[in-house]
Amino acid sequence: MAPYIFMERSGIHIIDLQKTSAKLDEASAALKQIAKSGRKILFVATKKQAKDIVAEKVKQINMPYVTERWPGGMLTNFPTIRKAVKKMASIDKMATDGTFDNMSKRERLQVTRQRAKLEKNLGSIADLTRLPAAMFVVDISKEYIAVREANRLNIPVFAMVDTNSDPNKVDFPIPSNDDASKSIALIIEVVCQAIKEGLEERKLEKEKDSAEAEEKSDDKKTVKSSARKSVEEEGDDEDISDEDLSEDDDSEIEEDFDEGDDLD
């Protein structure tokens, strides 16, 4: 972390905020593009100071997050995690289709407790149907298992990195204090705002594309109708010209007869 440290005072390392600002802008721009492409970004923050802040901010932009214990193998063994999520969905279905009514009180209590445990650990990633495109981590020293799994799967890692961590383990380090709640709130606010802008731009592009598609379909319909109309008009012209031709033929025949009489 030496390149990001401004100075040391009384054994405390002070981070260079200019470099923090530059790295934060770089990370925000990259996250914005990922969100704009429609892919998911997984947030990981299980430490006490960060979990509530991350859960509150990230829920607003509809991104998956892990604020309880990191389930080992969540990325490297993703199909098993998906099975657990499907189990949670099947329990919800049991509650609605009347299966609970046929269970004993003990069985119903066991299933309810299982559902609550799954909700606590996996509720925030229930909509994550495939591996995330990126991961944002608060304190890579604490979340070293999550960082290791992401590195193994070549998933880019964005992280708040303090002076006691190695920034080379992540792709987009943001040098900052990952212990202070105010620092965490500030970084998460900026990052979530960038993701929100990316999602809004994606929405606008979709609306623009749909409008253009509708306009093209309307133009095609107009061209088809005008072509049909011109064909019908040509058909009418052909009928009229046939009548005119028949009249001209009759007049020529009459003239021929008149000339014959004169000859006689």
Provide a descriptive summary of the structure in words.
The structure is a single chain. The protein has a single domain (2-208), classed as Rossmann fold (3-Layer(aba) Sandwich), CATH 3.40.50.10490. It has helices spanning 17-36, 48-60, 78-96, 105-122, 144-152, 181-263, and strands spanning 5-9, 12-15, 41-44, 65-66, 134-138, 157-161, 172-175. The chain has a five-stranded parallel β-sheet with strand order 4-3-5-6-7, with helices on both faces. Strands 1-2 form a two-stranded antiparallel ribbon. The chain is 61% helix and 11% strand. Mean pLDDT is 85; it is low at 245-249 and 256-264. The radius of gyration is 36 Å and the shape is flat. Helix 2 (48-60) links the parallel strand 3 and strand 4. It has six helices and seven strands; from the N terminus they run ββαβαβααβαββα. The N and C termini lie far apart (124 Å). By secondary structure, it is an alpha/beta fold.
